[in-house]
Structure of Class I SAM-dependent methyltransferase:
Amino acid sequence: MKDALDAQRSHWQKTFIQKPEMFGSQPSQPARASAELFAREGVNRILELGGGQGRDTLYFAGAGFRIQMLDYSDSAVEAVTEKARQLDLSESVTALCHDIRAPLPFDDESFDACYSHMLYCMALTTSELEFLSAEVRRVLRPQGLHIYTVRHTGDPDYGTGIHRGEDMYENNGFIVHFFSPEKVGRLAKGYKILGVDELEEGKLPRKLFVVTLRKE
């Protein structure tokens, strides 16, 4: 199983190169909603995990936030950096290549909020996700917000394709980790759960949880 999970990095790298606008240029609905919450909360500096091709990254920057984006694809980081330059947003966007299974390369309490769209449902084991959640908590300021989206076990693809351990299934070369409400609770250690909302996205449609947490 570990080899299959590790191979996802090169698969995403190849996909981003072949499909430079795979997810389109418009921001996701969770990003738009998160930006409204961030504005009400007085958020300034945001950490985005798994920013991909940058549609949400650039939206946050354009809305006036300073954003640090991480992705483990070199091509994605290079593309977002160039898009930010073209949009005159370079002062608001920093993109860095990083594997989030390793410690986050930031000091404690460096960010007001952390955001990720579909990063938590990538090919990551539960223990790796627990480590990541603890790292996010470390780099958030007191009372900082942590918002993430994941596909859940009510999704049409759950239980189909190649089983890759735990609640992970591979379809069309992509491994997805599907979440139950219990898993959301397990990963909320050290946080207060502000909301677990349901959302549909895309053509299947994909069925998501939007999880909103506050650091305790």
Q: What stands out?
A: The first strand starts at residue 45 and ends at 49.
